[in-house]
Predict the 3D structure of the following.
Amino acid sequence: MNNKVMCVQALACVAGSASFAWAGWTVTTAHPTGGAISRAHAAGGAGVGGRLELIATGTGISRAGFLPSSVTTWSDLTPAGACCGEILGVSGEDQVGWATFQLVDRSDAGIWRGTAASWISLHPAGMRYSVAYATDGVQQVGLATNASNRWRASLWTGTAASWVNLHPAIATESIAYGVHNGQQVGIVNIDGVGTRAVMWTGTAQSMIELAPSATWPSYAYAVHSGQQVGVVYGSNGARATVWNGTPASAVNLHPPRPAPYIDSHAFAVHNGKQVGYATTGQGPHAMLWSNTAASFVDLHELLPVDSFSNSYATGVWTDGSTIIVSGYGLANSVFADRAIVWTFAPDAPACDDIDFNNNGVFPEDQDVIDFFNVLSGSACGTCSDIDFNNNDVFPEDQDVIDFFAVLAGGNCV
């Protein structure tokens, strides 16, 4: 990538972390101070959540980590009384995942709102253990295991008492991985058939299959605004897939180049953006798509050269302009996983220069006079147009504010 421009800056309170910028993208290796391993599993507008292994609490002991978007320091949200935990889903102010309580020898699904003290257990009565994988801020989904240690797809609305067993009668096991706006997605295992991507709308009886093939396995991992994503296996291997509610709507997202991409998986979706990874001869590469295979962006190529041997994109959030992608990769310098956050922010439109009348003399009073004359509708053959900040909205107060900001030697506000 000859046109790659990199800049490195230390992030306060995040040991060994750096940011790299390329064509609107900023890539941050967001590894916490005192961390052995870190992985970012989910992204939202308020921050990213994941798994931390801290030297102080012991390598191999997972802690529930949350990195708010407004700060550069991870918070350990592992609740009091728990040895360990992990955040697997983020939406708005909510985080979901699991925590293990040694006193009762059980892992509980749970929900947080930014602090360890906010933990609410979602564990259903009578089940052995449980995990929450995703939330849309209203509902939570995951699994609970029964007395026979069989997985049961699970749905909650904020409390353990709200638990709904989504497990259909035709399946031996089931898991719900994603939820949004009344739709839940996941998998069922059916004897003699295998693993099938499915979708529910609040009850076990509502289950429909998304699997486009009756003979190959498929998985649905996430849903947002009527789109579902996952992976479909076939004779050519694994293919990242996006659906719009039916098997017939399946779109193969596998990057179209025959080499170097071998397999692909999609893990998350938000507002028409999908993320996951595609395997190359050198290892997995984090990927971003916009509804089609041809739209793929290989996020691994945005990482510093030779810094990571692999990478995975696990979560995505976008407001239609800014894109935040969570993930992790194996850092070559320490041979351990490091959390990664990719952020795309389009360049803001630049303001015009202060020589508004383009007479080569600036700054001068005549530029101010001509600006207001044009603002009021008067003609000026040599002047710039009145959309001073080039945001395609005019006339507006912000053009006046930005004109005087630039006149004073500043930048567009």
User: Anything to note?
Assistant: Confidence is low (pLDDT under 50) at residues 1-17. The first helix runs from residue 365 to 375. The chain is about 5% helix and 45% strand. Helices lie at 365-375, 397-407.
